[in-house]
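Per reviewer request, we include the raw input and output of the structure prediction for the construct analysed in the revised manuscript.
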Amino acid sequence: MAVLNVRNSKKRGESNFSGGINTEQLTMEVGDTESTDEYGFDTDNYPSLTTRKGKTSYGASGGAQTRMMAGFGNSQLLRAVGGTIQRDNGGAWTTIGTLSDAYVDTANFEVDGAPALILVNGVDAPRFWNGSTLGTLGGTPPVGSYITADPSRVFIAKGDVLYFCKFQDPEDWSAAENSGEVQYYTFAGGDITALYGYKDIKYLFKRDSMAGLYGVSYYDYKIVEISNSIGCVSNRTVQEVNGRLLFLGQNDVYQFTQGNPVAIGGKIRAYLNRINQSQIAKCNAFTDEHRYYLNLVIDGATEPNIRLVFDTRYNIWRVCALGESFRAGVQFNNVLYVGNAAGQTYKVNTGTTDDGAAIPWSVTSKAFDEGIGEAEKEYRELHIQGNFPSDSTLNISVSMADRGESFTPISYNPLSTATASLNKNLIIPLDTIPLTHWMRYRVSGTGSVSIYDLQRYFKVCRVQH
């Protein structure tokens, strides 16, 4: 029997998690800088892996599911909880009117020469809020589900038809040669599922198609097909982020810049495949201008139970949180406000706790074979450089399998023996791990932490053949 003498000396491997999460490939094949499972992180302090910022309750719960979060210009924040419309008054929510309990879409425009926020829900006649009164839009506006506007007109989608009002008059929908409608016909049929104004064009979606309304007036409006296979499954997932339009389609998340929609959801494929299709209309998104926060309903859940984030600056995905039940969000005067299924509104991306509770987090590495898959490795130590405040916790577990949840905890707390400094080099002994062909590690804990780099120290055993 021949023996291949692979250098039996102490070796070192280094990695970090700057590449985001990757659930598309086998754990052996993802990049050294990617995670295979995680939660509790955002892209702050990139390329370090940093716990997401916290959230703080804002005012009392509305006692019913959040149907809308919107800004009346930049002067007032409004929400819909169940069928109740409320405005914010320094954290106290004041009821201003009622609608049927349905999802509400909004657009800012002018009504009777004054700024107004127009509200549609597909059930009631469109309403408008002018800062003091919630009124019913005059004329004969369509009772549609989706709305957008440009400086000239308001557009409302109902069924498979897009309606537009008279020039600068949202209370006139019947003026000859000045208002009208355009049908969005496709061979597969179906109603419009989303409407969004982006770069002076009104984009219409069905579940399996996408088109744009081009033109500037009654005389030249026309619908131009963009895709007859890519559409949007939930109007609430459409967001303009850093100059790009992002939305959730039937099979992927797409990015659009007025060319062809580009799929960007490959790295979160495992989560997309687990979407509860019966609850897909509850999937939603919000943005802080650079990051696209996507809330999905996965597995057997009936409310959004995982929040992912795509950062357009670094083109990476991270998993922010689990079990939040977020239903709608808006950035208002540079603050993110998000409402959940119980009607509670939060300020998001603020502080270091969730209403005083430490933020839980976890990250799992790829399966490392150290480039010598046929040889067994004897792992000695794991080193972690990062920022670990005194109130944080940290746990380490290791798996000798390349997939699954068979992790063995390492019964050693590196924080208990580290120096008092927040910035630490943590050393975790791995001498209890048996010889293995590959190894994954999971780092988890609570609190606001940052992980900079990680190093694995090991020996490679001789290979017999």
